[in-house]
Amino acid sequence: MAYFVKSLGYFAQWNVNGNYLNQNESDHISEAFKIAMWQWRIMISRSRVVGAQIISLYPMEYSYKIEGGLNPPIASFQIKISDTIGKHSQILAMSEEVRDWQFNFPGRGTFTWICDIELPEAYYIELEFSHLQSSNTAFALGSKSSVFKQMFKEGSVDTITISDMATIPCQKFIDYFYDILRDEDLLNYSRDLLEAAKKYDVTDMIKDIEKRLARDINTQNVVERMKIAYRYELETLRDRCVRLILEFKKFWTIRMDLYDFLESVDREVVRKVFRDFCSVIAAIEGL
């Protein structure tokens, strides 16, 4: 555990304790930790300057090698060192706020910061990114969308304009490709994201949204979730909604909202709802 780095979202924290580090090593390299689509390491090295330490940050090469080239990150971040964490923590040193560091740029594969103070035996290194993006946008988009992959493969485009989405939902859509879309955004922007995911064949996003919508179904939202499920052909979500209504005998509770929904859709959707209701009833009755 001495070299373990805890990470969540854009934040990472290494609890460094000299008593547990190998004193025969001149460099102490952390275990790999994942932020966005990359695996990272932090390295602590002895400086020639007495009492100073060199703190280095770099993405692991295998995590950004791709077919036909590399996919290293461009990052904005800051590193801080504190004596402890919590209410009474004190920052001992901090790096500059690094902006748009291109890890793929010649000679910049590693970020190095000389911490020119003598550190205590135990301390915390905290890394916080404010921005991360791929230097190879084609890879990021093509890795999860067969449509984008084909567009870039054919060489017909070098940029993609998504003009049929509002700015914020579009940004959330792009965030998904970099593994930084928050769980609540899958819920809050579900309709916009499903439209885009269907259009650009982002199948993993469709599955993730469906799981999120199915997670907290209740009598207050079940009809709204049904509308989404039948519009975007989310079979698991459809089944969960119908089961809640029938297995838990909530038809009379939501019947008016359900009637309004059925009156607003075409006959094919009504037939699908009827078939799903019959299937669940048959399963309940053991038919």
From TrEMBL:
It is a peripheral membrane protein. It is found in: Endomembrane system. Gene3D superfamilies: Potassium Channel Kv1.1, Chain A. One of its GO terms (cellular component) is endomembrane system. InterPro entries: AtSIBP1-like, BTB/POZ_dom, SKP1/BTB/POZ_sf. It comes from the Eukaryota. Residues 141-214 form the BTB domain. Pathway: Protein modification; protein ubiquitination. This is BTB/POZ domain-containing protein. It comes from Trifolium pratense (Red clover). The lineage of its organism: Eukaryota, Viridiplantae, Streptophyta, Embryophyta, Tracheophyta.
